[in-house]
Specification:
Elements: E1 2-4, H1 7-16, E2 26-28, E3 35-38, E4 43-48, H2 49-52, E5 82-85, E6 89-101, E7 104-112, E8 118-122, E9 129-131, H3 149-177, H4 188-195, H5 203-217, E10 223-228, H6 234-247, E11 251-255, H7 259-272, E12 280-283, H8 289-301, E13 306-309, E14 323-329, H9 336-348, E15 350-355, H10 361-366, E16 372-376, E17 387-392, H11 395-407, E18 411-415, H12 422-432, E19 438-441, H13 447-458, E20 464-467, E21 480-485, H14 493-500, E22 511-516, H15 524-535, H16 546-559, H17 561-570, H18 572-586, E23 598-601, H19 615-627, H20 631-645, H21 650-667, E24 672-675, E25 678-682, H22 691-700, E26 705-709, E27 713-718, H23 724-738
Parallel strand pairs: 1-2, 1-4, 10-15, 10-16, 11-13, 11-14, 12-13, 14-15, 17-22, 18-20, 18-21, 19-20, 21-22, 23-24
Antiparallel strand pairs: 3-4, 5-6, 5-9, 6-7, 7-8, 24-25, 25-27, 26-27
Helix pairs in contact: 1-4, 3-17, 3-18, 5-6, 14-16, 16-17, 17-18, 21-23
Length: 739
Amino acid sequence: VLLCESQGQKARFEELLSEAAPYLTIYVGNLHTGFTFNSTSARVALFNDHEIYNHYRRKRRYRRFKDVTPIKSVSALHTGDFIVHVDHGIGKYEGIEHLRVDGVSRDCLTLSYRGGDRVFVPVDQMDRVQKYASQEGSVPILNKLGTATWERVKERTKKEIFKMAAELVGLYAERKAKSGTSFSKDTSLHNALDASFPFQETRDQMQTIDEVKEDMEHTSPMDRLVCGDVGYGKTEVAVRAAFKAVADGKQVAILAPTTILAQQHYRTFQERMERLPVSVDVLSRFRTKKEQDAVVKRMETGQVDIAVGTHRLLSQDVKFRDLGLLVVDEEHRFGVRHKERLKEFKRLVDVLTLTATPIPRTLHMSLMGARDMSVIRTPPKDRLPITTEVLPFNEERIAEAILREIDRGGQVYFVHNRIQSMPAMVDFLKNLVPQVRFGMGHGKMPERQLEKVMMEFLEGKYDCLISTMIIESGLDIPTVNTLIVNRADCLGLAQLYQLRGRVGRSNLQAYAYLLIPGWKGLSKTAGRRLRAIEEYADLGSGFNISMRDMEIRGTGNLLGEQQHGHIVAIGYDLYCRLLDEAVGQIKGEETDPGIEPDLQVSVSAYISEEYIPDTDLKMQFYQRLGECKRTVEILAIEEELEDRFGKMPESTAALVDTIQVKILARQLKVSALRVGQTMMITLPKERMLTRKEVEELVGKSPLPLQFYLGDQARIEVELEGKGPAARLFCAKNVLQSLV
């Protein structure tokens, strides 16, 4: 009997041991050790897959993953937020106002502009308004109504985006047209490597592995970007891709931005390839000149299958016998010269780029067809939210936090972002907890010395590392589960969020202590920032606040600094929308010229106070309804509303119908639509109806249609129903039948 950790392992063993099928039964399950049982009636030997591969883990042998809900991006509007209106530009959101005009009630968003001007936007036009998102700390200038400034900015940005998108799509098409190495399909050796992975793959990770392998089997060279947080399993994707290349007799180069990260990758690859006929070596400054020369020589003769290193790998003296795959970790952290060298590589071999910068879903969708991207969004199940506490500087609490972590066998990061006073802080902590071994690291230290400190900390020679912000984007050290940040009030929200992400990388509870001089002297902004980080302790919660900042940074990293300036000019959401249109246009897809139907509906449409009393929640639903592009999305929200709050009142049902009517009007490409006693549909001037089209429309409609075919074609329908809401419902049904 053989017990396997997962269905995937079971399938692999069934394939590997197919010849032993009559004597072997394979189940999914897990025991600590196997056993043999002998008796006169039966003889049984039971083994676990981890015993066959000799894969035991300290204490936690397996970290089980399950499909946790992926992270969602939230752009909830709050009073005082900056917004972007597609037609009017950047303004400020002042709240929701309930207006009654000509006997019709509706909720409107109040937007204020420069010079005290105000615009009221009915909630059924929510899609014209987005939250202005740019990097933290940048405050936009409000536009003035009635001037052409906004249109000029929008036009200029559109041109720049189009230019960049054309370049991206051109490069993509050029690469797809070239022929490169087509790697062979997986064999039992590949399956053995997959089965020796001591964790269970998440759904996203599995999909990414499949996409990478598919790219490698294709004739055109691969250039795929894999995005995912640290610890979400990107390295394993690289491991499997590397082995696929090595199995076909090719060499692999793994490029990391820092010596420490190169060292970490080297360990991982060595560990994973341990039982396979693969030679892994590292080329970094931790090696002497003599050792480096020996590695370079072995690479040239083909004795090294996988070479891990820093930008030293890109030096002119480094030559490969037959390079087949290049894996680049965090490409944006390399200099211009190195990026140029990378471009040369990209023309010749398959390239896999890994990044931990969050790539937003909108951008991912926009760039489909301009860049091959895989996004790993599913977090590991065992990850616990980090317990975060903001507290005034207190010797007792600091000592307690450090000692509690060390007592459970862990390590501590102490962030002190002032190099001048760092030695004094080290002395203070040594006096406070003399039994603890402290290391110190900051960016002004000689690089060799800094890397030595970091490596010693990684190897557990120090209990606590006192450092500046250099750890912000750094190592994956599962043993560090307590973070103490001194003067947290001086740091930005994204910085705090990223720092906090350095801990909590295992299944242990992690703690983050943000120290401040005291609550009294804090500025309002700092107080709000610290409360936000304390409040959003959940996994992936950063998407609610600072991830927006990092997404924008990520966009800058992915598309270049110049594009970053355009994002600041028009706001992130509108930028993504324009990029989406540009890519579609270049690829020759039929893009909607974006004629927004002029909709006039004489019915009270809003979510009443009685139905949803919570203003923020109501705003969320308004935003979600505004973002709907298809009828099926509306139906899902309608179902959710009824499930959570009961039967919809007439005004809310009318709002849902209004938005549905708007979507249908867009699909029919009408220029104006008025719903009252009758429904009047006005078509664009350039659209002339043919006799065949008229006959088709008449055949589809459940009610008689009247056509006026002058300069601008109009269609009129006499609506059925007693009140305005019933007539609106009738109009919706007629439009549905015409689509």
